[in-house]
Amino acid sequence: MSDRISRANMILLIIVCFTQFIEVMNSTTVVVALPSIQSALHMRANDLQWIVTSYVLTFACFLMIGGRASDLLGRKRVLMIGLALFGLSSLAGALATDPVWLIASRAVQGIGAALSIPAAMSLISNNFPVGPQRNKAFGIFGALGSGGAAAGSIVGGLLTDSAGWRSLFYLNIPLALLLIVGLLFVKVSPTAVQEKQTIDWLGLISVLAGIFVLVYGISMPDVDGAWPATKIAMLIIGVLVLGLFILIETFAKNPLMPLRLFKFRSLVTSNIIGFLMFSYMTGFNYFSTLYFHELGYSSLAVGLAFLPLGLTSIVVTQITPFIMRKFGAKRVLIVTQAINALGMFWLSQMDMDKSYASFILPAFIVLGLSIGASYTAVIVGSVQDVEPEEHGIAGGIVNTFLQLGGSLGLSILATIAASVTASANDVPANTALLSGFHTALVVSGLFAIVASLLAFMSGGKKRTAVSNPKDALVLRGEGR
What we know:
It is a single chain. It is built from 15 helices and no strands. With about 475 residues, the chain is mainly alpha-helical. The chain has three domains: about 5-195, MFS general substrate transporter like domains (Growth Hormone, Chain: A); about 200-255; about 260-480, Up-down Bundle (Growth Hormone, Chain: A), CATH 1.20.1250.
């Protein structure tokens, strides 16, 4: 079979890859602009994390139905719906006049992305034949995603400094519209309608409600150093609702999260490690951005500061599957999580006098090396013992856990930082703020140590998870 991609498929590939590019880029651009958004909308420091959390939370929960919606309604149609939601919510975000408005628009953006990404991946699976063509298509798709993350820092900083933070949202509107128009003229292979399958709406509502209540409870401030009754009640309700979600999944015909797969120890371990990893990495990005702002960096300077980390991660992600063929996902995770812990502890010593070139840059480069390898190893570890026909489901579950870790983890770390800052009396405001950042980064390092220990204690069958190393980069797209 020829590995030459037809003209029609090339046009389709450009559309789906740039869908991935702009939606990943959007996540990064908004993080860089957080200080400007906080100043413009007069947001409290403890509420700022909701701009990130709201997006990640809805993305994680709706990601579980994105692939199924594509199968039921048609991949092209769902991709267009997702892009339309993404564009309209970007317009709402650009016009936001208060924090609630912006946070709500970010939540809808997350829904749009959660529908778009699985649909885009499914279009690749459905239109490109197995073999060189599909491998090449998914390789390009993955590279554009990594490129979007790296470009987002620069684009976000440049636009925020030159045109204001609202321009980040306005930028998405013509891009989404252009992709929708392009899809109207692209012919794709028909979707085989699965009449017997349904969307598990009860499961979706229960997990979304449970995580939201839990995150909201965690982010509630303490009163006189103690948890108020309302906070305790919210945490209890959140746990109970998540328990209800597990019960619903036990009896659902087409569950969002098939519990039968959790019999595999490697999948459970990968989920927990991925959850912890995205908890501390989302917090790391958040607090590092605010730290650079305290140093007086412009938004563009913040983006440039993150660029070495992003570029290093992109390179390592491409070669990690080959490293894992020699050493295995378990060893890679043990080492990389330990390195991540050292990086968090190192950066917890940041202060107003530390040099970027001599203190922060080396840590960012090392973290870029270990983070890129960690992510790929988590994905591969999740399917280590799962049968090949269920790789897509297992990859989808672990990616959901990654995103949930980002939403819950950031909430926990932001609450810890705010509590430490509030209790720092008789010190300058920036010193109190940095003490909160330091504590959050130390806790992040502890998360990474736990992740490394879990990898060390994990078992699993000794067999290769994927026959082609490049498949490790696209498992979350296969099988949707």
